[in-house]
Task: structure prediction
Amino acid sequence: MGVLDELKQQAAALREAEAERARLAQAHANAVLAIALPAVYRIHLHLRDLAEQLRVLEPDTRVTLDIPGLGPVPGFRQERMEVLADGHPPDRVVTRFLLRYERRGQFEVKGVGAIDSWLDTARTRGLNVKLVRLLDPLGSVERGLVTIEDTVPASLSFYIERDTGALSLVIRNFEELTERRHLIRPQDVNTRWLDELSKFILRQPNGFLVESLPEDMREQLRRRLEIDRRRQPSGEEDGRAVRAPRLKNLFRRRLRLTLHYRDQQRELAQLDTDFLIGRSDGCDLIIRERRVSRFHARIEQQDEHFVLIDESRNGTWVRYADGTEHHVIGAAVALQGSGLIGLGAPPDPGNPNVILYSA
Result:
């Protein structure tokens, strides 16, 4: 074998190794997206719905903003929640607010070094601040009086960390005039987590971004509470009060939804988060069909029934057992009794992608 042939073999081996690395990298990226995309999708839907409700209700949300050099500054009003998304389905979601300052007054800036540098930093972060005058300009430490005007932009940005598969949350000017970053596990984005996110946005007491207790510590707390409960005296009246909820639970109907798709059967009961149906690998029920969107529809539990919510371009059909049919696009329909679900097309005999449901 000549030198040229050896070089050709080496070059071919190198190209093959590079192609294998690229294939593995792509496989890793696909696996990351399959886990993380549904979480970002759920966040987008939740924030979008929350923004729609707030536009109607217009709550009076008061904010105290922690500003370096000034400390906690009350008098801000949170308004104009806006939700933006990149991609379809989105891999980045941003919700923006305006914090409007509604008071007048002067604040003393101290302990920040040079006042000019502090002013530049504050303005870069979005604070419309003006210097009134310097205090003790000949002193060794600069102090000054400033006023705050207009609004401060605040935002929460969610995006996927492509290397780790985690969700990155960047919080800007929401509680303090700065930017902070948090990492979130996609599997933690469930109904309870989204509810805590809503409370966080509405400035209500919440457990958002609070680390949950390990299981062993939770078990210790449960045991301690049980011991304390047994030590407390309980009269006949207390006993009836304790037994009443238990008796109600015995007769409470347990919600259950069964889905049949081709050779698959899925049982849904007491959902902790939305059940996603679509073409994406990240869906709970995957349907490979060109008329089906990547995240076509979702099923959620509302009080005493299940609801299907269409999120697609082609719409979803639901046909009840009595023949009544609903075609929804971007809307919700209750899954009552039993019937058929058609994604992107009516659930006719010629449609091979029909879902049979029974609630």
The first strand starts at residue 61 and ends at 67. The chain has two domains: 43-201, 257-358. The mean pLDDT is 83.
